[in-house]
């Protein structure tokens, strides 16, 4: 046939198909070549008919001619931006979807099968936990308290980040790798339980308190209602009552707070609410300008609390102190008079018992006398009708809170030999106390204590959320104590202190306090005896502050550059000890004083040999400066 022509096909009756002669098995019909780009003519089919496909032998497949690599079946090109034509559908219609059996959904069977078994492997989890506890005991507890090992293994941030491989990935990791990560975390962390860690106000490791901390984590409850934390609600009540008894109160209230800073903020808030109950609804807009007072040595949380509560840091009057860091009551009185003359409203005085740097104790009794003379309140809730010492009449409403910050020095109350440092604390309205410091309870354990027992905390902070604090419960809802706190979820912080107290007893805790004082006395005596060591001041508490004067500066006290040069010594020695890993101790400037060391002993594991090493190491690290 001429190229490009097709044979004439006679017409066929509707619905018939041309006869096709049988073919030998496995043969294919010969198809004549077609001009490039042409397609074979396909006869029209009646609407709804389907072309007949001859049966194929079992296991055979149609022969598909090979295609050039990378090509695909030809699809006619479309103009740029066009889309295939979709026939219009009547408004409101949807494409036909074949019906599914009632109640079924894609993957429903697989989902039901998945939910038929737990989503965690408890056996594998317990096996990992046993191995992790071995790491905890061997590396963190035993290794972290071994005096022959390093206090820290210093790495610069970029190097440490790479070593720890901190980035989180899509896929989980096997247990052996996770355990290696646990060991690495211990290795590169500071060992605060080490006998030569003197850097913070907390140190040491108590095994009974640690057991309480581990139980707290394992039980993972929130201390807001009796129904969810029955044992711990009762326990907290007992522990707080014992702390209040040591303060000198026969009753009162309190709650464990997330740290001493928050305890101080609670005190400010409760004092404001007590003086101005409508402040809870109306806010500071409805109040006169409030002013609070603290010493220049007070904790910085006083300023933070004033900012947080909307009182403003400009309204914090920092009262002058003597050369030992104690608030001067006469200066407090002057500041109160000045605030009144300015038309402001004094409402809160924060005395400090055991200042952070020098360890000074403010004269709480004399401060309370100043508050009384100026009509400032000593009792948290006048509406409770509680009289002061000696059966005085209830205080008038416009009284101001005295809130000694015993967060650091409060544990001295346990010692009959040293509780005189806090004389007058029984006259306070509120106390912040951190047993996680001097008692080595472990972070964190901070009690906020009130002399008032009328429910002031509840009235100040309560919101009455009906999904937690239902009033129609089947038990006495007075045990649902969580609404006394600004928090909702609240960690159980009483268990570790309770278990330690059960193990040691009050006498054992008192001996721990007295041992810390003895360590400080020993170290102070050694400082006095050694060349090149100079006390900043005689210690009143367990804060020992001193300078180390290297040989190059000795005898040059009169030189104009003596103090600037001495101020560089402590930071240089600190860098060397950190990079060596031999010990840790803090330093800081203080007022006009250049940098000096502040040594703190709270760990009962510290011995005289550790204290001798401490002074020897400073001398070794600083003799060439």
């Amino acid at each position: 046939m001429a190229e490009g022509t097709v044979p004439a096909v006679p017409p066929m009756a509707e619905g018939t198909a041309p006869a096709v002669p049988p073919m030998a098995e496995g043969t294919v019909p010969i198809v004549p070549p077609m001009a490039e780009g042409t397609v074979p003519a396909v006869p029209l089919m009646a609407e709804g008919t389907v072309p007949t496909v001859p049966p194929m032998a079992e296991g055979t497949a149609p022969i598909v001619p090979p295609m050039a690599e990378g090509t695909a079946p030809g699809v006619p090109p479309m103009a740029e931006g066009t889309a295939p034509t979709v026939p219009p559908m009547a408004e409101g219609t949807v494409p036909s979807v074949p019906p599914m059996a009632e109640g079924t959904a894609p993957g429903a069977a697989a989902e039901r099968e998945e939910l038929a078994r737990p989503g965690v492997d408890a056996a594998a989890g317990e096996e990992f936990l046993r191995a992790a506890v071995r790491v905890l005991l061997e590396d963190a507890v035993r290794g972290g308290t071994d005096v022959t090992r390093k206090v820290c293994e210093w790495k610069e941030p970029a190097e440490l980040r790479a070593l720890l491989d901190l980035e989180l990935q899509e896929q989980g990791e096997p247990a052996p790798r996770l355990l290696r990560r646990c060991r690495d975390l211990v290795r590169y962390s500071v060992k605060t339980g080490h006998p030569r860690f003197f850097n913070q106000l907390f140190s040491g490791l108590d095994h009974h308190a640690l057991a309480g901390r581990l139980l707290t984590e394992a039980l993972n409850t929130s201390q807001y209602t009796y129904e969810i934390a029955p044992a711990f609600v009762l326990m907290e009540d007992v522990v707080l009552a014992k702390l209040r008894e040591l303060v000198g109160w026969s009753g009162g209230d309190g709650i464990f707070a997330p740290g001493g800073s928050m305890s101080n903020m609670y005190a400010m808030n409760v004092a404001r609410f007590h003086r101005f109950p409508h402040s809870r609804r109306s806010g500071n807009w409805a109040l006169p300008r409030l002013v609070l007072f603290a010493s220049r040595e007070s904790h910085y949380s006083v300023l933070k609390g004033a900012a947080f509560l909307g009182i403003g840091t400009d309204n914090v009057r920092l009262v002058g102190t003597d050369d030992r860091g104690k608030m001067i009551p006469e200066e407090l009185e002057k500041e109160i008079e000045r605030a009144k003359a300015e038309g402001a409203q004094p409402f809160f005085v924060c005395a400090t018992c055991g200042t952070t740097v020098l360890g000074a104790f403010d004269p709480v009794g004399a401060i309370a006398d100043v508050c009384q003379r100026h009509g400032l309140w000593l009792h948290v809730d006048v509406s409770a009708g509680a009289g002061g010492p000696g059966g005085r009449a209830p205080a008038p409403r416009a009284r101001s809170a005295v809130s000694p910050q015993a967060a650091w020095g409060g544990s001295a109350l346990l010692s009959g030999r040293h509780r005189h440092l806090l004389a007058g604390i029984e006259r306070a309205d509120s106390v912040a106390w951190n047993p996680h410091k001097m008692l080595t309870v472990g972070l964190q354990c901070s009690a906020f204590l009130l002399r008032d027992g009328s429910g002031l905390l509840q009235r100040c902070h309560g919101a009455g959320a009906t999904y937690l604090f239902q009033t129609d419960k089947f038990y006495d809802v007075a045990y649902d104590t969580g609404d006394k706190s600004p928090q909702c979820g609240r960690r159980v912080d009483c268990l570790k202190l309770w278990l330690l107290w059960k193990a040691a007893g009050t006498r054992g805790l008192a001996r721990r306090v007295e041992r810390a004082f003895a360590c400080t006395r020993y170290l102070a005596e050694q400082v006095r005896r050694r060349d090149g060591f100079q006390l900043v001041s005689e210690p009143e508490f367990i804060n020992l502050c001193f300078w180390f004067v290297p040989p190059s500066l000795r005898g040059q006290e009169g030189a104009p550059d003596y103090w600037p040069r001495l101020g560089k010594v402590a930071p240089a020695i600190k860098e060397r000890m950190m990079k060596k890993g031999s010990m840790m101790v803090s330093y800081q400037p203080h007022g006009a004083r250049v940098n000096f060391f502040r040594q703190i002993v709270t760990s009962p594991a510290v011995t005289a040999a550790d204290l001798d090493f401490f002074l020897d190491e400073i001398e070794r690290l600083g003799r060439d400066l």
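Residues 494-529 form the longest helix (36 residues). The CA atoms of residues 2 and 35 lie 11 Å apart.
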